[in-house]
Write a structure and sequence with these properties.
By secondary structure, the protein is mainly α. It has 2 domains: about 130 residues, Arc Repressor Mutant, subunit A (Orthogonal Bundle), CATH 1.10.10; about 45 residues, no CATH class. It contains 8 helices and 4 strands. Strands 1-2 form a two-stranded antiparallel ribbon. A two-stranded antiparallel ribbon has the order 3-4. A hairpin with a 6-residue loop joins strand 3 and strand 4. Helix 7 crosses helix 8. About 30% of the residues are buried. About 5% of the residues have low confidence.
Length: about 200
């Protein structure tokens, strides 16, 4: 069982507004992608494919069903009176011990994405996901998205930040990065992004 994916599904259902399945999938994708950019690996380790509305993974649907079978969440299917299309809504039924399954840096990434995008409308979220490099590099539907290493200088930049932090006495600017380590929190990641500009 992919407990990290289950944790993300649970947390998104618990905290995001205006949530349907497409938005749920896009938020998980953004969490995985942002974590990959900051730490070199995705949280869930699932594969994404280009589907009708951007990044998609069958694994997400599989674990939604698992959580529903376990009576942790409830998925309700509805029909839109405007479009006639079927859409899903979600709610939590009981708690899930996500804190057992997520590392501090993963939890930071989840909170960062939820704060930044959790209340966005689906149309805006779709634009954001379509604007990520893995989506821009895709050629056709059904193709697997590759997070790749579009920023090959990340570790080099982080080492520069580490050296810079050694030379400053300011407690707020100090980072505890090992020689070949990557950031341990979203704060470190935000500092990395600021240094890139």
């Amino acid at each position: 069982m992919n407990n990290k994916l289950c944790s993300l599904i649970y947390l998104i259902i618990k905290k995001a507004l205006h949530l349907g399945k497409t938005k749920l999938v896009k938020l998980i994708y953004l969490m995985d992608y942002e974590h990959f950019k900051a730490f070199g690996n995705s949280i869930t380790k699932i594969d994404y494919f280009y589907y009708h509305y951007g990044p998609y993974s069958d694994e997400i649907s599989k674990y939604i069903k698992e959580l529903e079978k376990s009576k942790i969440i409830l998925e309700t299917r509805n029909i839109s009176v405007f479009t006639g299309r079927i859409f899903c809504t979600y709610c939590t039924l009981r708690s899930f011990e996500y804190n057992k399954h997520l590392e501090a840096d993963e939890f930071d990434t989840v909170n960062y994405i939820l704060q930044k995008y959790g209340n966005e409308q689906l149309e805006i979220l779709l634009d954001i996901t379509y604007d990520t490099p893995p989506m821009k590099n895709i050629k056709s539907q059904g193709e697997q998205l590759e997070f790749g290493n579009e920023d090959k200088n990340m570790l080099k930049t982080l080492r520069k930040l580490k050296d810079k932090s050694k030379n400053t006495n300011s407690r707020e600017n100090k980072m505890d990065l090992g020689e070949s380590e990557i950031p341990k929190s979203m704060l470190d990641y935000e500092m990395y992004l600021a240094a890139k500009e």
